[in-house]
Amino acid sequence: MKLAIALSFLFSTLAAQAPLDERGKSGVVEFFVVDSNGVPVKGDITFSVRQLRDGKTAREVKVGAKASLAYGTYKLTVQGSPAYPVEKIIKVKEAYQPVLIGLFVAPIELPWAGNVVRGKLPRASAERGCLSVRLVSPVAENEYADARALASGEFGFENIKPGRYLLVTFGERGICEVSPVSVFDKRTQELFIDVGSLRP
User: Fold this and answer.
1) Per-residue tens of pLDDT for the chain, all 200 residues
2) N or C, where is the chain less crowded by C-beta within 10 Å?
3) Is the sign of the CA dihedral 136, 141, 146, 152 positive or negative?
4) Secondary structure letter of residue 138 according to DSSP
5) What distance in Å separates the CA atoms of residue 184 and residue 49, rounded to the nearest whole number?
6) What residues contact residue 198 under an 8 Å CB cut-off, 6+ apart?
7) Nearest by Cα to 189 from 135, 129, 141, 139
């Protein structure tokens, strides 16, 4: 079950663009904003949407954290100081649907010298040639960092802000491992990889 949820999230941006029945229907969309640890964010947060239809973008409309929208596809923009704006494509196709948004002070890879996060591939990943490593935020599909493991299996990331992530190892034949990991507020950290926790 966990694997299905994780993989569904990882490849959500590749979902088929099936047409929606938009005739006279509307649904309630409720936005839930969280930080990189999945903790709800409170404060002065604004939401705005632009409907996308027939290759055209409608004018921007400000909405609340809970809004009634006609069935269709929208470009959602979320802003909250001091975080940078987040944009997300959403499809309204249910009478009620929650939307989870990750709001961060900066992208996953910060522009300043910060921490070093190291790890070593599980043996099964190295043996199967899965030397590509990706850290993915479970609350924002556009937040990720990539690394390439050495032949020894060792890999490293730089300037990763603290939070909870999914660590994915993959190669030419597909995904080998998916494991939840935590990055702490440390200069140097060795990642603990729970081997097989979400293995395909």
Assistant:
1) 444 444 444 444 333 344 445 568 999 999 988 876 677 877 789 999 999 998 899 999 999 999 999 999 999 999 886 667 888 899 999 889 888 887 765 555 554 456 889 999 888 888 888 899 988 887 766 678 899 999 889 999 988 888 888 888 888 878 888 888 888 887 888 887 766 554 55
2) N
3) positive
4) T
5) 34
6) 2, 3, 6, 166, 177, 178, 179, 180
7) 135
